[in-house]
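Appendix B, example 12.
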Amino acid sequence: MNQKKELKNISAILKNKCPRCREGNIFISKNAYDLKNNLAMNEHCPVCGQPTEIELGFYYGTGYVSYALSVAFFVTTFVACSVLFGVSFKNNSIFWWLGISILLLVLMQPLFMRLARSIWLSSFVKYNPNWKNEPLPKNNSIKNTTPEK
């Protein structure tokens, strides 16, 4: 049962769904290659109302997640090329791997940037199976809080 929950969580992250209800889209455009609106996010989940920007500068940490995704991509492609073709300096195949991997990374960067935001938001906002019956906490976003005097 726990494994099924984890698969649903991973599926929601990969589909860029709201982590609280796993139904609403967190990005305005579904197309990651719509470069004008690539990172444009809904202020709130259209289904459950969960704010997507919890505090000012909330998504600064996604740089670390994006870096980890890029490193994982490079390691995966290196292992795959090593096993399938063999990578070495003798026949310059390592330079072919490096060039192709960099090209693929640049092409996949819009996907990685969105995925990093989805992972980051999901690590702070947990799934609530009773989200329909439980209202959001009042201090769930900087936009809902008033400054103290």
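Confidence is low (pLDDT under 50) at residues 144-149. Residues 2-140 form one domain.
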